Amino acid sequence: MSRCMTGAFLFLVWTLCGGGQARAWGPEGHAIVAEIAEARLSGPASAQVAQLLNQEQHQHLDEVSSWADDYRESHPETAPWHFVDIPLSATGFDANRDCAEGNCVVAQIQKFAAVLGDKNAVPADRLTALKFVAHFVGDIHQPLHAEDHDDKGGNSIHLTYFSKSTNLHAVWDGGIIEQALGVTLGPNFAPNLAATQQVATVLGGNISANQAGDWAPAGLTSQLDIVAAQWANEAHALAQMAYRNLPSSPRPEAWDRKYQVEAWPVVEDQLTRAGVRLAELLNEELQ
User: Which of 25, 45, 146, 240 has the fewest CB atoms inside 10 Å of its own CB, making it the most exposed?
Assistant: First the structure.
């Protein structure tokens, strides 16, 4: 499904009309996921992440967390890797129906996690795998990256969100986050890392041991096929919610305020879960 369009909630609008969705979460969301994860890395995993990132003179995961979106512009064949088209009315993920030939985020997380964990792999390949894994774990938690409603992933649902003409997919990619943080993207889609780091610190500090254990139990990578499908199913259920309570007209009065109040806690929760799960995946693959 080609997901390119403009007009929904207030999300960063980035169109890629050539087969694929808009940027999942946008740079702010991906940075938050990376920052939560990095704070939870074990000593060995942290050291290996630093070593891999140093190949390109990077120091932190948030610096490369949106690399996969930039890469897809020159490599459009990777566009389907960012999402999984589970029919909105379906009960959940079906690999045969939704991930033909492994061209979906569920399969690609498994593929690149294996490369990342292979200490005999070429270091440059492991770095590429790290960048894909960090991004795709974020992508699979974005509700509109786990559904198909014949509307380009919500890109065809045009709306005005807090006075900005946008689309449903863009709202969930970045509009809800930007509205909550009171920020906008800088030039070249550069996020406000000071703002994302502050939010990540708060979200990360609120994670209980029980929550972390429930969201990312030990041994996660040994059954990553099952686990990644579960993550997609969780996001898919939230996508169904995202389509409810939409306005009956493009410019209803104050609908966006109510939607923001309901949607921001969902986004916070998904970003937090993604950060915890990314950390556990990296800790296990980089022991």
Answer: 240
Cβ count within 10 A of residue 109: 27
Q: How far apart are CA 19 and CA 2, in angstroms?
A: 4
What pLDDT tens digit does each residue of the chain (287 aa) get?
A: 333 322 232 222 223 333 334 557 889 999 999 999 999 999 999 999 999 999 999 999 999 999 999 999 999 999 999 999 999 999 999 999 999 999 999 999 999 999 999 999 999 999 999 999 999 999 999 999 999 999 988 999 998 899 889 999 999 999 999 899 887 766 666 778 888 999 999 999 999 999 999 999 999 999 999 999 999 999 999 999 999 878 766 555 678 998 999 999 999 999 999 999 999 999 999 99
Pick the closest to residue 180 from 168, 160, 165, 196 (CA basis): 196
Walk me through the domains of the chain, giving residue ranges and CATH numbers. Answer: 26-285 (1.10.575.10)
Q: pTM of the full predicted structure?
A: 0.89
Query: Residue 277 is encoded by which pair of tokens?
Result: 């799960």
Tell me if 83 sits within 8 A of 22, measured CB to CB. Answer: no
